[in-house]
Amino acid sequence: MSAVFVLLAVQVLAGAFDTIWHHELVARLPARASARRELMLHSAREAIYGGVFLALGWTQWHGALALVLGAVLLVEIVLTLVDFLEEDRSRKLPPSERVLHTLLAVVYGLFLAAFAPHLLAWAALPTGFAWTPQGPASWAMTVFAAGVFAWSARDALAVRRLGRLASPSGARGRAVRPECGVTQPGHLIVPAVLVTGATGFIGRALVAQLRRDGARVIALARDASQARAEFGPDVWVVDRLDAIPAETRIDAVVNLAGARVLGMPWTAARRALLLASRVDVTAGIVELMRRLEQRPRLLVSASAVGFYGASPGASFEPLDEQSPPRPGQFQSDLCVAIEHEARRAEALGVRVVRMRFGVVLGRGDGAYPMLALSSRFGLGAVLGSGRQPAPWIHLDDAVALIRHAIAEPALSGPVNAVAPETLSQAAFARAMAASFGRRVRLRMPGAPIRWVLGEMSELLLEGQNVVPGAALATGFRFRHPTLAGAFEELARTEAAPDRGY
């Protein structure tokens, strides 16, 4: 049986890498409504693997029970094939994931070939269980089983949550309240909106709200299959801008495209990707506007509070839309480049709103889920000095502010998309912990964070006290103006997932 256990170990380790890297970090399946069926299949397959690990680690299944075990292994093959079909239907797999799936299938085939003689021998014995511990291998199988059972439960909970979000009483049926930016019913009258980055965190919520507003939505997404599965037939999905004919009517463009800034270290290659993923799309939008027979009236282009750079000494000096950038800091230079490209649309007579977002807080994706998980378990921490400002905005208000920009012709130029209240990072961590009835007891020094993350550590250890001057001056009203209120709402909707996004 040693070969069987080695192959199972290889299978579980490769599967764990596939789950964490491809499913969680790249595809972010638990945050995608279109991934519900895939997650359901993953949950069932993980439960089967957990049972097989425990069964083979400690027992032998004799007689008719061997046939039952063999049937379970065949069911896993069927589920795997169905999973492959579902993945091809709902999203575009990267080459690395396809290669890994092929290797996993080969390893599973080798496992079946190695295990088949043992299973046939067991089938010839009288029916019953035999307790046969395998020493360290049994304990290794137990650890593997605990891991896959936990992930099976996690995927099952994600399926349940996504099902509630898709129900009429869930997020897809809940409109942003009228007081959030658009003050009069029917005030937002935009027949056609192009949204880039439509399957991202803000993009999904915005597309859902625009559809409730009655707008015709065109969604640009790198993975057209995933976007079509996400949005359904009512949204026109394209994977490149030149697929949009010149006679298409587009009244407004909301540009949310771009790779995640906080993630992999800012190597030279990563910086080039962050820049290209934003500037190239923005340049493509401007070119589309030149090509269209009727140009859009508005471009809302996403930027970030990183435009203002890192405030030295955790300064709480207020920064409004007229505050300057900090040349030489990557986060500032990146935002300046994005906004410079967006402003080219102004020469075409298009109103341009450059939306500088703080950290967007919402359930299902973004920064909140991981921060909430650590806080729930009492692992919230003060980072560095904890005095650095932490600008933020609730997802409801981020979507509403975009809609406000569409509806308010007086709004143009830079707009700070942040809540009126900015607290220090230490106060931010305490407020989140308090929303779960916890306290912050941990502190992480700044030196190791800087050593590991390099310049990207500025996103965690520095900050900007950004104020939403332009939004307030044009009558926007925040639904979540205070951090405590925002965290209370998020914790409440997390406990009752049929509410909220």
* CATH fold descriptor of the largest domain: Rossmann fold
Question: Which structural class is indicated by helix and strand composition?
Answer: alpha/beta
Main beta sheet strand tally, sense and closure: 7 strands, parallel
Proportion of residues in helical segments: 40-55%
The CATH class of the largest domain is: Alpha Beta
Radius of gyration: 26 Å
Spatial gap, N to C terminus:
49 Å
Stretches where pLDDT is under 50 for at least 5 consecutive residues are 167-187, 497-501
Q: Which shape, going by the Cα principal axes?
A: globular
Protein name: TIGR01777 family oxidoreductase
Family: Belongs to the NAD(P)-dependent epimerase/dehydratase family. SDR39U1 subfamily.
Keywords: Membrane, Transmembrane, Transmembrane helix
Secondary structure elements and pairings:
Elements: H1 2-26, H2 36-58, E1 59-62, H3 64-90, H4 95-123, E2 128-131, H5 136-166, E3 192-196, H6 201-212, E4 216-220, H7 224-231, E5 236-238, E6 252-255, H8 268-291, E7 298-304, H9 330-342, E8 351-357, E9 359-361, H10 368-376, E10 381-383, E11 389-390, E12 392-394, H11 395-407, E13 413-417, E14 423-424, H12 425-435, E15 442-444, H13 446-453, H14 458-461, H15 469-473, H16 483-495
Parallel strand pairs: 3-4, 3-6, 4-5, 6-7, 7-8, 8-13, 9-12, 10-15
Antiparallel strand pairs: 1-2, 11-14
Helix pairs in contact: 1-4, 1-5, 2-3, 2-5, 3-4, 6-11, 8-9, 12-16
